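Checklist before submission:
- one chain only
- standard amino acids only
- sequence pasted in full

Submission:
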Amino acid sequence: MFKSGFVTIIGRPNVGKSTLLNYIMGEKLSIVSPRPQTTRNNIQTILTTDDYQMVFVDTPGLHKPRHKLGEYMVKVAKDALKEVDLILFLTTPEGEIQKGDEIILEQLQDIEIPMFLIVNKIDENTQNKVAETLEAYGKKFKFKEIIPISAIKGKNVDVLVELMQKELPEGPKYYPDDMITDVQERFVVSEIIREKALKLLSDEVPHGIAVDIIQMKRDQRGKYTIEVDMICEKDSHKGIIIGKNGQTLKRIGQYAREDIEKFLRANVNLKIWVKVRKEWRDNPSFLKELGYKTKK
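Returned file contents:
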């Protein structure tokens, strides 16, 4: 009996949703950054074995939106809860229930879909704090399974995947065996570049950054040429991104190219230009150009 189904990962920003997805897949498919609200689009990632196929939807973290891009991110997160077979609710050991978690879980109370509580980052906390967290959440909300894990180290992730498999319904193979994501290569490449910028830039810049791939072509030898506009909101941000003598932009490009070459399994010539588009996050037409479907 072959099983298949759709799984959504949800939780506060920066609890490790993308890290967990990346560990399960063994591929760097979702942007990972120490800054919150870094995942902007829901990414379908496909895990296929001889017995089952899991299609993951990695959602942006739920948060209070402050601009149109934020509204889009929250809408995507809520839409991802519809018509899935399993919800993984991810949190971290804080001892008591976090207010952000409480708000999210109250919104999920009426949804009749199996939900697992996944307490991540147990390697960074004491056993007592982990136990207190498991007990607090388990008492207040109804979960089908409660599993403590370390996504970054892979602790208990195999147990989680086994329990997820049991929850999948009997179903068809939705995607070919060798397909790991339905996201275009261009999008994954742009996310890799944005991740490097998030890691290297100062606090006031990152969420005002977008990456627009102008050209991505492959020559007869298999080498890619990728030309990119990195969009920021202020002239002062442009200077920070470029850095003294262009050093910051050079490092962003160098680190991004290394990961892009691993992802594409090919040599890459990467060119990045920095451009200013003031208040682009509140510009519906420009957001649409970048692939974000905003409210009318």
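Reviewer check: Residues 3-167 form a domain with the Rossmann fold fold (CATH 3.40.50.300).
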